[in-house]
Write a structure and sequence with these properties.
Layout lengths: L1 H5 L10 H6 L4 E5 H8 L3 H8 L4 E6 L4 E6 L9 H14 L2 H5 L11 H19 L2 H9 L3 H12 L3 H9 L1 H5 L4 H7 L6 E5 L5 E2 L14 E5 L18 H44 L3
Parallel strand pairs: 1-3
Antiparallel strand pairs: 2-3, 4-5, 4-6
Length: 287
């Protein structure tokens, strides 16, 4: 969560660009395909060098940089690429390579328990970077059991298996969040909105009644920003009940103002007429 705050990431799916741009002097992201092209080697050779079919985090003392590799060649990876990148970032941010005293984490150079601990910590980091537990809990709470996994997958841009693991580990991960961290989480915009059942208006959290059709029935759903939706009353130019009432009050105010203005004008005209009559009466004495 601290990483999301530090790099001002305020929406999901999490975009890694901000992180790698800010840390361009310390860390670089590279695809397996790019490595294969540079070294003129096969995927099998690359997996052997990285000692992983998914990805790796390597420290290069010669350039003083960390290199994060991920497998973009295997079509079975799909959205696992994002989790792999987040997992390798976990090794970087948690300082695993420094702690282990190695340039690459692999089973051959560490004890089985130490390697498993580092991998487990990187997994926890990755799922809370991509899908912070308080936000995932919100999705789970407002979704049916059938929708929970697919909604989590779509909202956070992770694979189905990662979504299953995410929801299974919610309670354990929530223990890591302080009250302040949870508040920071709720500043992140996720495409999971409260929608009116009747007219499709996206409602603000805490609002139980639709301001357009006054329906009190609503539900939460994944709102794909790239998918066109049926125009809502607001988008069609309709006014809410509150706006109608405000317009009515303003109209009454304008009418009252016009009435007051007309009264003052009549008073001024009457005063002018009295002055003229008084002047004619005064002049009549000398004519």
């Amino acid at each position: 969560m601290e990483v999301l705050v530090e790099f001002d990431i305020l929406q999901t799916p999490v975009c890694f660009t901000k992180i790698f741009s800010a840390l361009s002097n310390e860390i670089r992201l590279m695809r397996y395909s790019e490595y294969m092209k540079r070294c003129q080697c096969s995927l099998e050779d690359t997996v052997a060098v990285m000692q992983s079919s998914d990805g790796a985090c390597i420290y290069k003392p010669s350039v003083g940089k960390y290199l994060i590799f991920y497998n973009d060649v295997d079509p079975r990876m799909g959205r696992r690429e994002r989790f792999t990148i987040a997992h390798e970032l976990g090794h970087y941010f948690l300082g695993h390579l420094e702690k282990a005293g190695t340039n690459i984490l692999c089973r051959g150079e560490l004890s089985e328990s130490e390697y498993a601990r580092y991998e487990r910590e990187a997994d926890v980091f990755a799922r809370n970077l991509l899908s912070p537990a308080p936000l995932a809990y919100r999705v789970f709470y407002y979704s049916t059991r059938e929708e929970a996994y697919t909604n989590t997958q779509k909202i956070f841009g992770i694979s189905y298996q990662a979504a299953v693991t995410r929801l299974n580990c919610i309670d354990a991960d929530l223990n890591y969040y302080s009250g302040l961290m949870t508040q920071d989480c709720y500043k992140i915009n996720i495409p999971f909105k409260k929608v009116c059942n009747s007219c499709g208006t996206i409602l603000e959290d805490g609002k139980d009644e639709c301001p357009y059709c006054s329906s009190s029935k609503s539900h939460y759903e994944f709102v794909d920003p790239d998918k066109p939706r049926k125009p809502t009353p607001k988008e069609m130019g309709f006014m809410t009940y509150e706006e109608i009432e405000e317009e009515y009050r303003m109209q009454k105010y304008r009418e009252k103002y016009q009435e007051t203005l007309l009264w003052f004008r009549k008073q001024e005209e009457a005063e002018e007429e009295r002055k003229r009559q008084k002047m004619y009466k005064y002049l009549g004495k000398y004519l």
